Amino acid sequence: MALRQTLSAAPALASRRRAFPGEDESYTKARKSLLAEEIDLRRKMTRIAEQRRQLPPGPLMKDYRFKDANGSELGLADLFGGHDTLVSYFWMYGPERERPCPMCTNWLGSVDGNANDIRQRVAFKVFGRSPVERQKAFALERGWQALDFLQVIGDDYVKDFGLLMPDGSELAAIVVYKRGKDGVRLFWKSEMTAEMADPGQDPRDAPDIAALWNILDLTPSGRGTDWYPSLEY
């Protein structure tokens, strides 16, 4: 077993920070304290990623069915290509919706620019309940070029993963699968539900993988409490 390297204390690392010209003592003290917390957060995120990679094998998946842009019916195992890992995103654009979910749209817009890079390491697919032609038409409207859309066939998939509500509304989800000799197994699914949200916060995963919120978290006013992205401005 490899020995884990002893890490320097976060405050000691933060003390190496260089002050900006004109910076007063109160800002320096507060910024060093915050920097130490940021270093600790980075380390915790690294530990969580390591813990996630050590998850035992998840349950074997059903042979969920999907339809691609050519109208071909595919099983879950067919979506991996040359990879053993599949990352999927189910977005809220069912046939009953006139327009897609703005939050799903915002996230997919940021991922579109990274999709070709992502596919160097893993397979990446976007699932929706609407026909692929409808999903791709919206992608064209947004200028997306690199996302691969599939239509889920039937409701087994969305019901098994808790993504279809009794009133017909949907929930978005990131689900990661691992393909092995015995079939396709669940590796990880985002599972922070609304019931797990802290008081005064919208439900969110940790770490938050949305570029929008991460950038706003760097600003003086933060995310705000009554603002969400829109499909049009």
Strand order of the largest sheet: 2-1-5-4-3-6-7
What is the tally of helical segments? Answer: 7
| Record field, number of beta strands | 7
Q: How big a fraction of the residues is strand?
A: 15-25%
Unreliable residue runs: none
CATH C-level class of the domain at 65-189: Alpha Beta
Rg result: 21 Å
CATH topology of the domain at 65-189, by name, is Glutaredoxin
CATH superfamily of the domain at 65-189: Glutaredoxin
Largest sheet: 7 strands, mixed
Would you kindly provide a brief summary of this structure?
This protein is an alpha/beta fold.
Write structural notes for this entry.
The structure is a single chain. With 233 residues, the protein is an alpha/beta fold. The chain has a domain of 125 residues: Glutaredoxin, CATH 3.40.30. The chain contains seven helices and seven strands; from the N terminus they run H-H-E-E-E-H-H-E-H-E-H-E-E-H. A seven-stranded mixed β-sheet has the order 2-1-5-4-3-6-7, covered by helices on one side.
What labels would you give this structure?
single chain; 233 residues; alpha/beta; Glutaredoxin; 7-stranded mixed sheet; 7 helices; 7 strands; 30% helix; 16% strand
What are the SSEs and their pairings?
Blueprint: H1 10-14, H2 25-53, E1 65-67, E2 73-75, E3 85-90, H3 102-112, H4 115-118, E4 123-128, H5 132-142, E5 149-152, H6 156-160, E6 173-180, E7 183-189, H7 211-216
